[in-house]
Amino acid sequence: HFTFLEERPMAELTGHKSDILDISWSTTGFILTASMDKTVRLWHVHKPTCFRVFSHGDFVTAVEFNPTDNGFFLSGCLDKRVRVWRIIEGIVVHWVDVHDFVTAARFSPDGTLVFAGTFTGKCVIFNTAGLQFVTRLEVRSRRGSNRDKKVTGIEFPPTGDRFLVTTNDSRIRQYSLQNYQPVCKYIGLTNTTSQIRASFSPLGSMVISSSENGEVYVWEVESSYVPSINPRLTGHRRDHNESYEHFTGVTQSGTISTCAVFAPLSASGSEPIGAYENPAGQVIVVCSHSGEIRIFRNFSDSPSDPAISKAIAFEQESRQPR
């Protein structure tokens, strides 16, 4: 048995009047929380009360510190606006009307771009300076089916050369950050109404997502099951990845697993094998609608084998909210 979380939380921060929809951590221990009470609140992990409240016109669905300057943050709101705030003065320095409900928003890793996902399946990209329009992506299949499905998450890997967009058509799509073209589609999860957000593993070689059926799904970023011969002859496509591993992330049948993420390597103790991300020792944290947090740790007995097919063998611990 292993212990990953302490029995008691290190801090409890109280102040919001409704559900919290997003959280962002700074590099200095500050926390931003976005809520259905139409506010963003600024906290510090060692202080019991919030430092500042940033009011909005509707539910705040997304918040993030600027990754290169924690004195600024981004917010996305159901009033159809994306805002960049200067924290010390508590003012909006840039804003733009996206003309659609903003359901996800993120900075690029270098902080120069803002990505906004919308209720009708668009991903709109702006320059951070002035929020000048760059391009708009229609996040749907090339045939036009599954169109206008809500964007529920936008995430970047450690390398920052691509990004993931999760949508309510039960698909995760990877795009190039250089030309914004689709690279791969990940299939397997169920996500039709929830605010599920896929993410990358610590070194960016795997994609992980929770699911409405209570399962947790893990894909290789580039599927090793696509043969070198013409994929059309075998039914495999390089831009469609349906080769995944999965395990049950919840204890109650019928409960949605709302979030699943890899823990940082520094916390899990897993070490890379050369250029490969070693699955042995990796830790996955899973949350559910029931309020339970479950911790899964890979105890594969083949630590030298980086294949993800050997990665999903876990022991677990659970924590209930206090």
Describe the structure in your own words.
By secondary structure, the protein is mainly beta. 1% of the residues lie in helices and 44% in strands. It contains one helix and 25 strands. It is globular. The relative contact order is 0.09.
Shape descriptor: globular
| SSE pattern | EEEEEEEEEEEEEEEEEEEEEEHEEE
Averaged pLDDT, please?
87
Binned strand content: 35-45%
Taking the sheet with the most strands, its summary is: 5 strands, mixed
Alpha-beta classification:
mainly beta
Give the terminus-to-terminus CA distance: 22 Å
Low-confidence blocks of residues:
301-315
Query: What order do the strands of the largest sheet run in, or round the barrel if closed?
Result: 13-14-15-16-20
Estimated radius of gyration: 20 Å
Number of helices: 1
State the helicity in percent bands.
under 10%
What is the number of E strands?
25
Q: What's this, in brief?
A:
This protein is an all-beta fold.
What is the fold's blueprint, element by element?
Elements: E1 20-25, E2 30-35, E3 39-44, E4 52-55, E5 60-66, E6 69-77, E7 81-86, E8 91-97, E9 102-107, E10 113-118, E11 122-127, E12 132-138, E13 151-155, E14 162-167, E15 171-176, E16 182-187, E17 199-200, E18 206-209, E19 215-220, E20 240-241, E21 244-248, E22 257-262, H1 265-268, E23 283-288, E24 293-298, E25 314-319
Parallel strand pairs: 16-20
Antiparallel strand pairs: 1-2, 2-3, 3-4, 5-6, 6-7, 7-8, 9-10, 10-11, 11-12, 13-14, 14-15, 15-16, 17-18, 18-19, 19-21, 22-23, 23-24, 24-25
